Amino acid sequence: MVHTTLLSANGAFLLLTILDVGRGFVVPKCSSRATQKWSAKVSSNEYLMPGMQAIDASNEELFHKLESLREKPSFRFFSVDILASCEYMPQELFECYTESCEIYPAEEEEVSSRIREVDRQEHAFDLDGWTRWDMPSDDYYDLEAFPEGYTEYDGSEIWKFIHNRICFDGYDYDDEHWKADFNKAVSGLHSMISAQVLRGVQEKMDEGEVIQLDLKKEFTRRLGANGETPRAIENLYFCFMLLLTAVSRAKARLLSDCSNGNIESDASEDLRDIFNSPLLNDASVSLAAKRLQDHATQDGASSQNLWEARMRSRELLRITNCVQCNKCRLHGKISILGLTTALQILVGPTGRGLDPEQVKRVELSALVTTLHKCSRAIQYCQQMQ
């Protein structure tokens, strides 16, 4: 089973990572020959390999375009319920009093009235929806002011709950079923966060902080082909491919939102640059989403049981209320919303996808933000090869 191999693979849940490439961390460029070797090291999957090689060749360029977009208000301010109670497991109250854990709401004037208005108008209760986002409040949090960072929070119990209780049991990695694909996507998100954690540790070390950890060995343990989760990086690429295809399908909606004011008009140029990336127009990249769709529609039972995926995607969001690090909770919720929005667009209620016009602004913002996080994680994994 995919998820049973993941229980201790990545350790801390959302120790959430480094500040960002723009703050001094540069990943060296890789030659095409080097990226081909890298892809061969982390995967032997024939249908994923061409897309993985395409990502290795073009991800750096896409990453810098995404870096520019993340500075725009629509992709940096999110209203998140930081005080929501954990409903899934008994916990001792743990207060993270360190500065690395804490976050504070943005000043009222920093968040446009348009963002607040759209979020309030679009928020609705959907009994059988793919997502159940927090009700918008006056409190918005700025991802630029509180970027991912190494916080020392240990969320391993959260991940155990996710892989044991939320992911689908009884499905092996290579099973031709959408439930196996769902598990791989969640594993890929976990791998993304693991890469962020290690990158955050490296950033602390580069700043002179003493951390007793061998990064190479820890990378191998968490993400290496000979580590505890041999296909962790392959799953990271699989997740990234789903996100890329979902963003590509949302192109018309995102550009329309720039025109109607739901997204800042000056974000239009950044979005157009992103949509011009070969990765958003590459058939080898979109093959992961096609196979997911094929699995979801291969027979009547598959499509009729998609409610199980929708239920689990909602639970993924709610389990983050058990994360006792505010910065980790913030970034974790946004990352999970991004993945579940991708699934919503690619699979929808019948397995054939959902019109992005029906997706909420905050869901699209989380989707693009998570694409950026995943792109950065792949950069780090390439740098560690």
TrEMBL record:
Localization terms from the record: Endoplasmic reticulum membrane
InterPro entries reported for this sequence: Ero1, ERO1-like_sf
Keyword list, A-Z: Disulfide bond, Electron transport, Endoplasmic reticulum, FAD, Flavoprotein, Glycoprotein, Membrane, Oxidoreductase, Redox-active center, Signal, Transport
Cofactors demanded by this protein: FAD
Location, primary (coarse class): endoplasmic reticulum
Segments crossing the lipid bilayer: none
Protein family per UniProt: Belongs to the EROs family.
Identification of the protein by name: Endoplasmic reticulum oxidoreductin 1
Organism: Fistulifera solaris
